[in-house]
Design a protein that fits this description.
The protein has about 450 residues and is mainly alpha-helical. It has one domain. Helix content is about 75%, strand content about 0%. The protein has 16 helices and two strands. A two-stranded antiparallel ribbon has the order 1-2. The chain is globular and about 85 Å long. The termini are far apart. About 30% of the residues are buried. Keywords: Cell membrane, Membrane, Receptor, Transducer, Transmembrane, Transmembrane helix. Belongs to the insect chemoreceptor superfamily. Gustatory receptor (GR) family. One of its GO terms (biological process) is signal transduction. It is found in: Cell membrane. Gustatory receptor which mediates acceptance or avoidance behavior, depending on its substrates.
């Protein structure tokens, strides 16, 4: 006897059905399959060719020359990418124009990776020399002032970021190549669907200025190191190099988030024009697929740079705590002087970097997600046909099921909440450290008394 009959006789409730959890690609495939099945049923019942149900078209293999021609994002940000390749930070490469070959690739045997290993070896040699001297000075010099010791700790913590470069950047090189290829394919697909390309008007001069300023600064200090080999020049070179890397990572995140906002606004403008036309259901299907691809690219951004920006946030967090504690301790010991200005500048610099990253991610997420939802919710469904109503509902469901979230591979979501959570954690640690400081001062006063 079946279980259901036995359960009914025993007055038992049947077991709960477990709904499978699908990833975005599986969910998209299932929706297309259901629509295709429904379309076949309508054709069989009414013996007609026309239908109001539209499914995703099979994509043709695009010509690599055509992909290069319309890859505005790559040509716009090429100068900053080349600078990162020279610095050995991001050793991805551009593949030859061959059919069925991704335009951007990553290989551990490429010349870009070998160059990155060479640059990393030379840079690590200089960093180890400077690090050894700084550690010996920190351990052996007991008469050094407290503010100088704080500067030394901050400098040593920045030096350790050099050793994390292969793990933070090179390890996720294939994911970065996937992200770049997604942008390349998306721009040509956007052009085919909307009839107009995506234009990034402000990114080209921005990336050129950033690349020129970073390269001139690094080359100038490198020349001083070769001409005047000494501790102060090596320290300055390492400081400038690491600072340029931090600024470069922040600039790269800003450029990617700005590009998402630009693509979202262009898609939104085309969607608005399409909604004004007669029976826009078929176009809405293509726009929905464009939006899903854009959301997947935002998720891929977090996966591609998860280690890099995870380490980045940790460095900013640690440096801010140490600099804030050092400045407050000096004020408690000797009063407010000009010595604390440098520490406050470091705190302001680190918090500015964190704010730019979180704020730009917030605006990109809002532009891709909330703005599209608002535009679709404002559509008057009473004046459109049934097919358009169905497509608007499926568009809203796609936005709900595929939220455009920048997640660092499960470690953290990059948004404004990350700023408040970091500030709260910093305040907690600072209170604990200052309690130790006050207790030490009180014990010292009692001993002196």
């Amino acid at each position: 006897m079946a279980y259901w009959a036995i359960a009914t006789r025993k007055c038992e409730s049947p077991p709960m059905k477990i709904t499978p959890v699908l990833n975005p690609n599986q969910r998209e495939f299932l929706e297309d399959e259901l629509l295709y099945r429904e379309k076949l049923e309508i054709l069989a019942e009414h013996n007609t060719i026309s239908t109001d149900l539209f499914v995703r078209k099979f994509e043709d293999i695009d010509d690599p020359i055509l992909l290069d021609k319309h890859d505005s994002f790559y040509h716009t940000t090429k100068s900053l990418l080349v600078l990162f390749q020279i610095m050995g930070v991001m050793p991805i490469h551009r593949n030859p124009q061959k059919p069925q070959m991704p335009r951007t690739g990553y290989s551990w045997t490429s010349k870009q990776v070998f160059w990155a290993i060479f640059v990393f070896s030379v840079q690590t040699t200089v960093v180890v020399m400077v690090l050894r001297e700084r550690v010996n000075t920190f351990l052996n010099d007991s008469d050094r002032r407290f503010d100088e010791a704080i500067y030394n700790v901050i400098f040593i913590s920045l030096l350790f970021t050099n050793f994390l470069l292969p793990v933070a950047s090179w390890r996720h090189g294939p994911q970065v190549a996937i992200f770049k290829n997604m942008w390349t394919n998306y721009q040509l697909k956007f052009l085919k669907v909307t009839g107009s390309p995506i234009v990034f008007p402000n990114l080209y001069p921005l990336t050129n200025r950033l690349a020129n300023s970073f390269s001139k600064l690094i080359s100038a200090h490198l020349g001083f190191v070769f001409l005047f080999v000494g501790r102060e020049y090596c320290d300055q070179f390492v400081t400038i190099l690491l600072t340029a890397m931090l600024n470069g990572f922040c600039s790269l995140w800003y450029i990617n988030c700005t590009a998402f906002g630009t693509a979202s606004r262009a898609l939104s403008a085309s969607l608005e024009m399409t909604l004004m036309s007669d029976k826009p259901a078929k176009k809405l299907t293509e726009y929905r697929h464009l939006w899903v691809d854009l959301s997947h690219m935002m998720q891929q951004l977090g996966r591609a740079y998860s280690n890099m920006y995870g380490m980045y946030c940790l460095v900013v967090f640690f440096t801010t705590i140490i600099a804030t504690y050092g400045s407050l301790s000096e004020i408690m010991d000797h009063g407010a002087t000009y010595k604390e200005v440098g520490l406050f500048v470091i705190v302001f610099y680190c918090m500015s970097l964190l704010y730019i990253i979180c704020n730009e991610a917030h605006y990109a997420t809002q532009s891709v997600g909330l703005d599209f939802q608002t535009k679709l919710l404002n559509v008057d469904l009473t004046v459109v046909d049934s097919a358009t109503q169905k497509e608007v509902e499926m568009f809203l469901m796609a936005i709900t099921k595929n939220p455009p979230i920048m997640n660092l591979d499960g470690y953290a979501n990059i948004n404004r909440e990350l700023i408040t959570s970091n500030v709260s954690f910093m305040a907690t640690y600072l209170v604990v450290l200052l309690q130790f400081k006050i207790t030490e001062q009180r014990n010292y006063t009692l001993r002196e008394g």
